[in-house]
Design brief:
alpha+beta; Rossmann fold; 3 domains; 6-stranded mixed beta sheet; disordered C terminus
Length: 440
């Protein structure tokens, strides 16, 4: 145990100094990490054979033409974080006054709305469990109290849970924290139930879970089976018609959560309006966890006299606000003349002051900005924002599915898709996935 802990401390220390992308070569720190993980594998083969096998395979594939295989590196990092949590918390008997809850729900904080409906209608109102029975980080009454050790608290609840319910989604797969929870649940081997949220289109999550093991959550037969299992296990009363009503209420939400994406207007389609948006460029960079800077360039041409009202950057996912009031759009209030500022030539530490100075000297209010018939304007919207802060940290920013939405005159609007490009001086690791094109 002490030797495992010693090697883990060494590995975690190395990981904290490393940032990789798909073009990173194997350097001295990676070489030391490979050596330390190699020492760790034989020590795990008896107690953690699956983790040991994963690490062994990852070591075999870590090098790809002299570059780091990011997938193997990711598996090593996830496995080490799981082991770090397991060998730090220790046996639950070390915490005699700390008792976990009966049901642990592992989910992405980005799926908070659907998780709340599941807890309310299925577990609480439908089956009859109490809030004291459930641990769920995204629901305030069921989560961690202020001042408690988050990692320790989560693992105490995983260790003690009668059931662990994994609510798997695209957001879940992209969250390293969720994958660490999944690994801990898998390692403690309690009753694990995997459920798929709408729009899951992948076969497996790393080396821990094949989605063939999972059932669709929005299925009356699946929900009835879960209800029967839990009421039998906990000797609860079968609520009959109450259960049926709550189950159907939950299932009725399926259309809302599984709503197909509406087709956005292309630039050519937008020309059917009397306002055309073209030559858009959208740059964003991460400064640190949860903090981003952006610049959106655009040109607008009108075929009639119009008055702008509002401009928004919109994503399919919530990305700003707070957990109780999240938003999918960022309203742009002020613009500056295009080419008066360039995010790719300004360092992050200087950008805010440059933006404030530029807006002060050249700012153009967007609301009620008139564009005459035949006029073309070229503007940039610049600034910064913070993403939503969850109990497990700030959300990463999605890199896909962005659009620009403008409203003008009394009831006219236009919406076009825009591509997010990573600006220069970006801090890696704070977007939803790592396969991003770095601006150079």
């Amino acid at each position: 145990m002490s030797e495992i802990r010693e090697i883990l401390d060494s590995c975690i220390s190395i990981l904290k100094t490393m940032r990789i992308d798909y073009n990173s070569s194997i350097g001295p720190r990676t070489t030391v990490l490979i050596s330390e993980v190699g020492r760790l594998v034989p020590l795990l083969e008896n107690d953690q054979p699956c983790v040991a096998e994963c690490l062994k395979q990852s070591l075999e594939n870590i090098s790809f033409n002299g570059l780091i295989n990011a997938y193997s590196f990711g598996d090593i990092r996830t496995a080490l974080k799981i082991l770090d949590s397991m060998y730090s918390v220790g046996n639950v008997n070390e915490f005699p006054n700390k008792r976990g809850k009966k049901i642990f729900i592992s989910h992405s904080s980005k799926d908070r709305v659907i998780v709340e409906k599941f807890v309310d209608h299925i577990l609480l109102l439908g089956i009859g469990l109490s809030t004291e029975d459930i641990f769920c980080t995204s629901i305030e009454d069921l989560a961690i109290k202020n001042g408690e050790d988050i990692r320790k608290h989560i693992h105490i609840n995983i260790q003690n849970a009668d059931y662990s319910i994994m609510l798997i989604s695209g957001n879940y797969k992209k969250s390293e924290i969720c994958l660490n929870e999944m690994g801990a649940v898998w390692a403690y081997s309690n009753n694990v139930r995997y459920y798929l949220l709408p729009n899951v289109n992948f076969d497996k999550i790393g080396w821990l879970c094949n989605t063939n093991q999972a059932e669709k959550l929005f299925d009356s037969i699946v929900l009835d089976a879960l209800k029967n299992e839990l009421i039998n296990f906990y000797s609860l009363e079968d609520k009959g018609t109450t259960w049926s009503r709550q189950r159907e209420t939950f299932l009725s939400k399926y259309k809302e959560f599984n709503r197909p994406q509406t087709k956005e207007k292309s630039v050519k389609e937008s020309e059917l309006n009397n306002l055309t948006i073209f030559d858009t460029r959208f740059y964003v960079r991460a400064i640190t966890e949860g903090e981003y800077q952006y610049q959106l360039d655009m040109r607008l041409r009108s075929d009639s006299n119009i008055v702008l009202k509002e401009v928004f950057i919109v994503n399919d996912n919530y990305f700003i606000g707070d957990t109780s009031n999240p938003y999918k759009e960022l309203r742009l209030v002020t613009a500056v003349p295009r080419d008066s500022i360039d995010i790719n030539t300004i360092k992050p530490s200087e950008y805010r002051n440059k933006v404030l100075t530029c807006i002060s000297e050249k700012g153009i209010p967007i609301a009620d900005r008139k564009i005459a018939n035949g006029e073309q304007i070229s503007i940039s919207c610049v600034g910064g924002f913070e993403t939503i802060r969850e109990s497990d940290g700030y959300d990463d920013l999605p890199i896909n599915n962005w659009k620009l939405c403008l409203s003008y005159d009394i009831d006219s609007s236009i919406s076009i898709p825009i591509k997010l490009s990573i600006a220069k001086y970006n801090t890696n690791g704070y977007f939803w996935h790592n396969q991003i094109e770095i601006y150079d």
